[in-house]
Write a structure and sequence with these properties.
With 155 residues, the protein is α+β, with helices and mostly antiparallel strands. Helices cover 32% and strands 15% of the residues. Helix 2 packs parallel to helix 4. The longest helix has 18 residues. The two termini are 37 Å apart.
Length: 155
């Protein structure tokens, strides 16, 4: 299959997958690793969007950012096209699940998450949290993913 042929040419580590440029060395406007990986991701998403290595490809691409962007507008565009394909295929913009957060058996947050919540920060109980057991629950049939932000809330 074409996807396996594509993966045979990839560089894979335990945490990331990427494709290297055919012109190794200095950065090139014509051919570089970030764009090659972004276009490979688009091809894989078109044929096999549920491949478990997709997350490793995204991790590598996101790790290549310089601040909020990539090395050029050309690279940034290639990556954003690939990530847009990912969002569309994984239904990230159509979440439908109930999220529950417990700390030592005490409920901090328990709400349904839907399309209207996209981009809104959800916060749980405020105040002092004691001891050491945080439990995050989502039903097995959930659609979408909660993502923790650095400010302490959930998106």
């Amino acid at each position: 299959e074409i996807v396996e042929e594509l993966f045979r040419s990839a560089r894979e580590t335990p945490s990331a997958v990427h494709w290297e440029s055919q012109r190794p060395g200095s950065w090139s406007w014509i051919d570089n690793d970030v764009e090659a990986t972004a276009y490979a991701l688009r091809a894989i998403l078109a044929v096999r969007p549920d491949d478990p290595r997709v997350a490793k490809i995204v991790r590598w691409l996101v790790g290549k950012r310089i601040g909020r962007e990539w090395a050029s507008t050309k690279e940034t565009a290639a990556v954003l096209y690939a990530l847009t394909d990912l969002i569309v295929r994984t239904k990230e913009l159509a979440p439908d699940y109930r999220a529950a957060v417990e700390w030592n058996g005490k409920s901090l947050f328990d709400e349904r998450i839907s399309r209207i919540d996209i981009g809104r920060e959800k916060t749980g109980a405020q105040g002092r949290l004691e001891a050491n057991r945080l439990e995050i629950k989502a039903p097995a049939r959930s659609v979408g993913r909660a993502q923790r932000n650095h400010g302490g809330g959930w998106r």
